[in-house]
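ok, trying the design again with the full structure, not the truncated one.
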């Protein structure tokens, strides 16, 4: 925690990342939410690739993720990123400095929201881990995955692609894909396939929260 964050915490007491209730200094979740939202679950799996998360996704995900996505709550986002970095260090399947990238957002939606929460998390995580962060993926389209029925998420043609010059950045690297949420894995899976096709030596997924089966 830097000096500015420390000063702000005196004026604005920390709140539970899951429900937004005031918590004791140094705590990230209240006692009730620690029971409701399993914290630091074992790694998940997407077709043989590790999926590391801070929380297990239930009917709703922690309120701090919504605050980051829709209200640009950067202090809450940085707290989430620190937990993600901590969990990666505990569970990471490789040693060495990984390349961190993030799930892209359609340009028009990113402009409306004022940023991409996955990119913000990735850049904060990169600082925590001392790893390089590069945007190497692009995405078109409007609908988000959670706006589609589960079957449609798997059926739709995923409008993902690589940015120019991405292969030179990815080739031979161990790449960590960051996002805020994984449910079916359709979006993250499309990104992982592109990263591996571009020459990634290994790929893994790091998210704030994931579905129990993911």
């Amino acid at each position: 925690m830097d000096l500015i964050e420390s000063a702000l915490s005196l004026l604005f007491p920390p709140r539970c990342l899951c429900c937004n209730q005031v918590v004791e200094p140094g705590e990230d979740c209240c006692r009730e939410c620690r029971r409701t939202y399993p914290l630091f679950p074992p790694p998940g799996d997407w077709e043989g690739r590790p999926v590391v998360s801070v929380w297990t996704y239930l009917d709703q995900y922690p309120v701090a993720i919504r605050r980051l996505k829709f209200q640009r709550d950067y202090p809450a986002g940085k707290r989430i990123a620190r937990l993600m970095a901590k969990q990666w260090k505990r569970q990471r399947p490789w040693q060495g400095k990984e390349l961190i990238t993030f799930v892209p957002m359609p340009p028009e939606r990113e402009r409306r929201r004022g940023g991409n929460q996955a990119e913000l998390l990735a850049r904060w995580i990169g600082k925590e881990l001392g790893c390089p962060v590069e945007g190497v993926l692009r995405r078109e389209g409007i609908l988000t995955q959670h706006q589609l029925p589960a079957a449609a998420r798997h059926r739709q043609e995923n409008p993902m692609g690589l940015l120019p010059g991405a292969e030179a950045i990815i080739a031979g690297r161990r790449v960590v894909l960051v996002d805020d949420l994984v449910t079916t894995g359709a979006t993250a899976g499309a990104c992982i396939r592109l990263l591996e096709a571009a020459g990634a030596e290994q790929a893994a997924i790091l998210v704030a929260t994931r579905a129990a089966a993911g």
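Keeping the full-length input from now on. Residues 44 and 51 are 5 Å apart (CA to CA).
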